[in-house]
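Intended use. Records such as the Phospholipase/carboxylesterase/thioesterase domain-containing protein entry shown here are meant for training and evaluating sequence-to-structure methods. They are not intended to support clinical decisions.
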Amino acid sequence: MSYSHQSMGSGSRSARGYEFGRTYVVRPKGKHQATIVWLHGLGDNGSSSSQLLESLPLPNIKWICPTAPSRPVSLLGGFPCTAWFDVGEISEDLHDDIEGLDASAAHIANLLSTEPTDVKVGIGGFSMGAAIALYSTTCYALGRYGTGHPYTINLRATVGLSGWLPGWRSLRSKIESSNEAARRAASIPVILAHGTSDDVVPYRFGETSAHSLAMAGFRQVMFKPHEGLGHYTVPREMDEVVHWLASRLGLEGSR
Protein backbone atom coordinates (compact mmCIF):
# COMPACT_ATOMS: atom_id res chain seq x y z
CA MET A 1 0.00 0.00 0.00
CA SER A 2 1.25 3.47 -0.82
CA TYR A 3 -0.68 5.27 1.86
CA SER A 4 0.75 6.58 5.08
CA HIS A 5 -0.65 7.59 8.43
CA GLN A 6 -0.69 11.35 8.88
CA SER A 7 -1.47 13.49 11.89
CA MET A 8 -2.67 16.44 9.80
CA GLY A 9 -5.94 17.49 11.36
CA SER A 10 -6.06 14.40 13.54
CA GLY A 11 -6.84 15.06 17.15
CA SER A 12 -8.71 18.31 16.49
CA ARG A 13 -12.02 18.68 18.27
CA SER A 14 -15.50 19.54 17.11
CA ALA A 15 -17.61 22.21 18.78
CA ARG A 16 -19.01 19.60 21.18
CA GLY A 17 -15.56 18.36 22.11
CA TYR A 18 -15.62 15.12 20.09
CA GLU A 19 -12.13 14.30 18.88
CA PHE A 20 -11.58 13.51 15.21
CA GLY A 21 -9.72 10.28 14.57
CA ARG A 22 -6.65 9.42 12.55
CA THR A 23 -6.23 10.77 9.03
CA TYR A 24 -4.86 8.51 6.29
CA VAL A 25 -3.27 9.76 3.08
CA VAL A 26 -2.90 8.03 -0.29
CA ARG A 27 -0.10 9.84 -2.07
CA PRO A 28 -0.19 10.42 -5.85
CA LYS A 29 1.92 8.02 -7.90
CA GLY A 30 2.35 10.64 -10.62
CA LYS A 31 2.29 14.43 -10.87
CA HIS A 32 0.18 15.89 -8.06
CA GLN A 33 -2.69 17.68 -9.80
CA ALA A 34 -5.61 17.25 -7.41
CA THR A 35 -6.38 16.51 -3.76
CA ILE A 36 -9.66 15.01 -2.66
CA VAL A 37 -10.86 14.47 0.90
CA TRP A 38 -12.84 11.21 0.99
CA LEU A 39 -15.32 10.66 3.81
CA HIS A 40 -16.38 7.29 5.15
CA GLY A 41 -19.85 6.19 6.20
CA LEU A 42 -21.37 5.78 9.66
CA GLY A 43 -19.29 3.55 11.93
CA ASP A 44 -16.38 3.25 9.50
CA ASN A 45 -12.93 4.88 9.44
CA GLY A 46 -10.41 6.53 7.15
CA SER A 47 -8.27 3.41 6.87
CA SER A 48 -10.86 1.43 4.92
CA SER A 49 -11.41 4.39 2.60
CA SER A 50 -7.70 4.69 1.89
CA GLN A 51 -7.43 1.02 0.96
CA LEU A 52 -10.27 1.36 -1.57
CA LEU A 53 -8.91 4.55 -3.11
CA GLU A 54 -5.32 3.32 -3.32
CA SER A 55 -6.37 0.85 -6.00
CA LEU A 56 -8.01 3.41 -8.31
CA PRO A 57 -6.18 4.31 -11.55
CA LEU A 58 -5.93 8.00 -10.68
CA PRO A 59 -2.17 8.55 -10.26
CA ASN A 60 -2.44 12.34 -10.11
CA ILE A 61 -4.78 12.51 -7.12
CA LYS A 62 -3.77 12.74 -3.49
CA TRP A 63 -6.50 11.29 -1.28
CA ILE A 64 -6.98 12.47 2.29
CA CYS A 65 -9.10 10.08 4.35
CA PRO A 66 -10.00 11.43 7.81
CA THR A 67 -11.81 9.50 10.53
CA ALA A 68 -14.93 10.97 12.09
CA PRO A 69 -15.26 11.48 15.85
CA SER A 70 -16.90 8.79 17.93
CA ARG A 71 -20.15 10.26 19.26
CA PRO A 72 -23.61 9.16 20.42
CA VAL A 73 -25.85 8.66 17.37
CA SER A 74 -29.63 9.08 17.65
CA LEU A 75 -30.24 6.57 14.85
CA LEU A 76 -28.55 3.95 17.04
CA GLY A 77 -30.42 4.89 20.21
CA GLY A 78 -27.52 6.98 21.48
CA PHE A 79 -24.92 4.26 20.99
CA PRO A 80 -21.54 5.86 20.18
CA CYS A 81 -19.76 5.22 16.90
CA THR A 82 -17.79 7.20 14.33
CA ALA A 83 -20.12 9.78 12.75
CA TRP A 84 -19.60 13.11 11.02
CA PHE A 85 -22.74 14.49 12.68
CA ASP A 86 -25.70 13.20 14.65
CA VAL A 87 -28.47 11.66 12.59
CA GLY A 88 -31.84 10.14 13.37
CA GLU A 89 -34.04 8.07 11.11
CA ILE A 90 -33.38 9.01 7.50
CA SER A 91 -36.72 10.39 6.33
CA GLU A 92 -38.26 13.48 4.71
CA ASP A 93 -38.54 14.98 8.20
CA LEU A 94 -34.89 14.41 9.06
CA HIS A 95 -33.58 17.08 11.45
CA ASP A 96 -30.20 18.49 10.45
CA ASP A 97 -27.50 18.65 13.11
CA ILE A 98 -26.08 21.99 11.94
CA GLU A 99 -23.48 22.17 14.70
CA GLY A 100 -22.15 18.73 13.84
CA LEU A 101 -22.30 19.38 10.10
CA ASP A 102 -20.40 22.65 10.47
CA ALA A 103 -17.75 21.11 12.72
CA SER A 104 -17.03 18.32 10.25
CA ALA A 105 -17.14 20.66 7.24
CA ALA A 106 -14.62 22.93 9.00
CA HIS A 107 -12.37 19.95 9.77
CA ILE A 108 -12.42 18.95 6.11
CA ALA A 109 -11.72 22.52 4.99
CA ASN A 110 -8.77 22.63 7.37
CA LEU A 111 -7.35 19.48 5.77
CA LEU A 112 -7.55 21.13 2.34
CA SER A 113 -6.32 24.56 3.43
CA THR A 114 -2.62 23.70 3.19
CA GLU A 115 -2.71 22.17 -0.30
CA PRO A 116 -0.60 23.92 -2.99
CA THR A 117 -2.43 26.68 -4.84
CA ASP A 118 -1.92 24.99 -8.23
CA VAL A 119 -3.63 21.79 -7.04
CA LYS A 120 -7.37 21.39 -7.59
CA VAL A 121 -9.29 20.30 -4.49
CA GLY A 122 -12.50 18.37 -4.07
CA ILE A 123 -14.57 16.29 -1.67
CA GLY A 124 -16.21 12.89 -1.94
CA GLY A 125 -17.79 10.30 0.28
CA PHE A 126 -20.08 7.36 0.84
CA SER A 127 -23.42 7.41 2.71
CA MET A 128 -23.03 9.81 5.67
CA GLY A 129 -19.70 10.79 4.12
CA ALA A 130 -21.55 11.76 0.94
CA ALA A 131 -23.95 13.84 3.04
CA ILE A 132 -21.14 15.87 4.60
CA ALA A 133 -19.46 16.19 1.19
CA LEU A 134 -22.66 17.65 -0.25
CA TYR A 135 -23.15 19.88 2.77
CA SER A 136 -19.60 21.20 2.31
CA THR A 137 -20.43 21.86 -1.34
CA THR A 138 -23.41 24.00 -0.36
CA CYS A 139 -21.16 25.86 2.10
CA TYR A 140 -18.76 26.54 -0.78
CA ALA A 141 -21.58 27.89 -2.95
CA LEU A 142 -22.99 30.07 -0.17
CA GLY A 143 -19.53 31.19 0.95
CA ARG A 144 -20.37 30.39 4.55
CA TYR A 145 -21.12 27.64 7.00
CA GLY A 146 -24.57 27.15 8.50
CA THR A 147 -23.54 29.33 11.43
CA GLY A 148 -22.55 32.16 9.09
CA HIS A 149 -18.76 31.88 9.39
CA PRO A 150 -16.93 32.27 6.04
CA TYR A 151 -16.14 29.17 3.99
CA THR A 152 -12.94 29.85 2.06
CA ILE A 153 -12.03 26.62 0.22
CA ASN A 154 -12.36 26.76 -3.58
CA LEU A 155 -13.88 23.36 -4.34
CA ARG A 156 -13.56 22.00 -7.88
CA ALA A 157 -15.48 18.70 -7.73
CA THR A 158 -17.80 16.70 -5.47
CA VAL A 159 -18.59 12.98 -5.45
CA GLY A 160 -21.51 11.57 -3.44
CA LEU A 161 -22.25 7.83 -3.35
CA SER A 162 -25.39 6.45 -1.66
CA GLY A 163 -25.93 9.62 0.36
CA TRP A 164 -28.28 12.56 0.79
CA LEU A 165 -28.24 16.34 0.84
CA PRO A 166 -28.71 17.96 4.27
CA GLY A 167 -30.79 21.13 4.19
CA TRP A 168 -32.23 20.42 0.74
CA ARG A 169 -35.55 22.16 1.43
CA SER A 170 -34.07 25.63 1.98
CA LEU A 171 -31.11 25.45 -0.41
CA ARG A 172 -32.75 27.03 -3.45
CA SER A 173 -33.90 30.16 -1.63
CA LYS A 174 -30.47 30.61 -0.07
CA ILE A 175 -28.63 30.28 -3.38
CA GLU A 176 -31.05 32.54 -5.25
CA SER A 177 -30.58 35.31 -2.68
CA SER A 178 -26.97 35.89 -3.80
CA ASN A 179 -25.54 36.35 -7.30
CA GLU A 180 -22.14 35.19 -6.08
CA ALA A 181 -23.65 32.05 -4.55
CA ALA A 182 -25.45 31.34 -7.82
CA ARG A 183 -22.18 31.75 -9.74
CA ARG A 184 -20.31 29.36 -7.47
CA ALA A 185 -23.14 26.83 -7.52
CA ALA A 186 -23.10 26.83 -11.31
CA SER A 187 -19.32 26.39 -11.40
CA ILE A 188 -18.83 23.15 -9.46
CA PRO A 189 -19.29 19.70 -11.03
CA VAL A 190 -21.12 17.16 -8.85
CA ILE A 191 -21.64 13.44 -9.47
CA LEU A 192 -24.13 11.46 -7.40
CA ALA A 193 -24.68 7.71 -7.65
CA HIS A 194 -27.24 5.58 -5.83
CA GLY A 195 -28.42 1.99 -5.87
CA THR A 196 -32.10 1.41 -6.56
CA SER A 197 -32.19 -1.34 -3.90
CA ASP A 198 -30.50 0.68 -1.14
CA ASP A 199 -32.31 -0.20 2.11
CA VAL A 200 -30.23 2.10 4.34
CA VAL A 201 -30.42 5.43 2.50
CA PRO A 202 -33.39 4.87 0.16
CA TYR A 203 -32.88 5.58 -3.53
CA ARG A 204 -35.40 8.42 -3.52
CA PHE A 205 -33.06 10.47 -1.31
CA GLY A 206 -30.37 10.29 -3.97
CA GLU A 207 -32.88 11.40 -6.60
CA THR A 208 -34.20 14.19 -4.38
CA SER A 209 -30.68 15.38 -3.63
CA ALA A 210 -29.75 15.60 -7.31
CA HIS A 211 -33.03 17.36 -8.16
CA SER A 212 -32.67 19.83 -5.28
CA LEU A 213 -29.13 20.74 -6.33
CA ALA A 214 -30.19 21.24 -9.94
CA MET A 215 -33.19 23.37 -8.94
CA ALA A 216 -30.95 25.49 -6.72
CA GLY A 217 -28.69 26.34 -9.67
CA PHE A 218 -26.02 23.65 -9.53
CA ARG A 219 -25.84 23.27 -13.31
CA GLN A 220 -23.24 20.51 -13.50
CA VAL A 221 -24.97 17.73 -11.56
CA MET A 222 -24.81 14.17 -12.86
CA PHE A 223 -26.99 11.50 -11.24
CA LYS A 224 -26.20 7.84 -11.90
CA PRO A 225 -28.76 5.23 -10.78
CA HIS A 226 -27.52 1.66 -10.35
CA GLU A 227 -30.24 -0.94 -10.84
CA GLY A 228 -30.39 -3.54 -8.06
CA LEU A 229 -27.47 -2.08 -6.10
CA GLY A 230 -27.80 -1.96 -2.31
CA HIS A 231 -25.95 0.20 0.21
CA TYR A 232 -22.44 -0.51 -1.02
CA THR A 233 -20.13 0.29 -3.91
CA VAL A 234 -19.28 -1.93 -6.88
CA PRO A 235 -16.44 -1.74 -9.43
CA ARG A 236 -18.62 -0.32 -12.22
CA GLU A 237 -19.67 2.55 -9.95
CA MET A 238 -16.08 3.34 -9.01
CA ASP A 239 -15.08 3.13 -12.70
CA GLU A 240 -17.65 5.85 -13.44
CA VAL A 241 -16.19 7.98 -10.66
CA VAL A 242 -12.66 7.47 -12.02
CA HIS A 243 -13.61 8.54 -15.55
CA TRP A 244 -15.68 11.47 -14.28
CA LEU A 245 -12.90 12.81 -12.04
CA ALA A 246 -10.25 12.42 -14.74
CA SER A 247 -12.44 14.34 -17.19
CA ARG A 248 -13.72 17.05 -14.87
CA LEU A 249 -10.37 17.76 -13.24
CA GLY A 250 -8.38 17.48 -16.48
CA LEU A 251 -6.00 14.91 -15.05
CA GLU A 252 -3.00 13.62 -16.97
CA GLY A 253 -2.23 9.92 -17.26
CA SER A 254 -5.63 8.73 -16.00
CA ARG A 255 -7.86 6.41 -17.97
